[in-house]
Amino acid sequence: MTSQTLKDRMVLLLINGMSNEAAEGFCIQQGQAAEQARSIVAEARKRITVAADYTRDEQIGKAVMRLEDLYAKSMAGQDIRTALQAQRELNRLLSLYADVRRDDSPNEDLDAPAMRRQLDLMAAYLVPLKLADPTYPVEEHARIAAEIIRLHGLAGV
After folding, report:
1. Phi, psi at 65, each rounded to 5°
2. What are the two backbone dihedrals, phi and then psi, of residue 100, each rounded to the nearest 5 degrees?
3. Taking the model in full, what pTM does it have?
4. Phi-psi category of 9—alpha, beta or left, where left has phi over 0 and alpha has psi -120 to 50?
5. Which of 55-59, 72-76, 92-96, 112-116 has the highest mean pLDDT?
6. pLDDT of 4-33, one tens digit each?
7. Fewer Cβ atoms within 10 A, N terminus or C terminus of the chain?
């Protein structure tokens, strides 16, 4: 079994509920050294985590775009009730109803206009890199940029 095939198999076994110890044992049975087995299992776990995070962010991005499209179409068709429902769902998805004035908030001295300027500045740097569709939220652009930096080992540069 090739190294890449074994790594892919580890991802499938871990997703299907195999424990880390059992997965390491399987690698050893396939002729891998104990240290190499631990490395293969750790890499498989990392791949699973990255895929799960990406899928969630991607799905949130899609949901936002769909809700914005539904809102625009509803307003164009003078369907205020549907537009309002789409806006409510978007607000809920983005946690806009959460209490932002908690006592333990680290940014309590930042006002909304200052936060908006910061977000616009980040967008000015990230969106031109064309890492994601320009309609995706700035957070998605930042997440993709961070992932590229991690994958290419540029974090300490």
Report:
1. -60, -40
2. -85, -5
3. 0.41
4. alpha
5. 72-76
6. 888 889 999 998 889 999 999 999 999 999
7. C
